[in-house]
Amino acid sequence: MDIDVRGPRFGAAVTTVVLAVALITGSAWLLAWQTFAFALGAAGGVGRSPYGWVFRTLVRPRLGPPTEFEAPEPPRFAQAVGLVFALVGLVGFTAGPAWLGLAATGAALAAAFLNSAFGYCLGCEMYLLVRRASVRAR
User: Fold this and answer.
1) Alpha carbons within 13 A on the beta-carbon side of 138
2) Less CB within 10 Å around the terminal CB: N or C of the chain?
3) CB-side exposure of 114: number of CA atoms within 13 Å?
C-alpha cells in the first residue's frame, strides 16, 4: 500500500531539527533518540516511527487529502541508511573519535535537510540504484 508523501517529508523535517540540535550540542542522548526513531522506521516502515505516528495522528487530520503517494520501500530503506549513519555518529560521540560523530551526524543531517526542504530523498535514490543494480546482475 502506497503512503502519503507528506509523512516522510514531515519526519525528515523533525529529523533535521533533532540532528541539528544533536550536532550543535554534541548530545549523545539526543542522537540516541534519533537512532531509535530511525530503527523503528527501518524495522516497521516510516508509519511506525515516532514522527510517522505524530504525522498520522496530529498533522494529517488537519491537512487536505493526499494528492501524491509513493511506495513505502524506498523511505524505509532511507530510514535504514539513516540508522547506519546515526549509529556511527553515536559511536563517535560516545567512544570517539569525536570527528566521526560530527561527520556521521552531519551527513545524516544533510540528507534529512534535502528531503525536508526540497523533497529529495537520498536514501530513496540509493534504494532505486540498488534495485536497478540487482536486476542487472541477474
Assistant:
1) 5
2) C
3) 13
Q: Which amino acid is at 116?
A: S
Residue 69 pairs in a beta bridge with 4
- Give the separation between CA 67 and CA 112, rounded to whole angstroms: 22
**What is the number of alpha carbons within 13 Å of residue 29 lying toward its C-beta?**
1
Rounded CA-CA distance 134/74 in Å is 15
The pLDDT > 70 percentage for the chain reads: 100
Helix (H) or strand (E) holding 3: strand 3-4
**CA pair distance 57, 96, nearest whole angstrom:** 38
- At residue 121's C-alpha, the angle toward residues 117 and 126, to 5°, is 160
C-alpha cell at 10: 514531515
Residue 131 confidence (pLDDT): 93
> What cell does 92 get?
563517535
Per residue in 23-59, pLDDT (tens digit) is 999 999 999 999 999 999 999 999 999 999 999 999 9
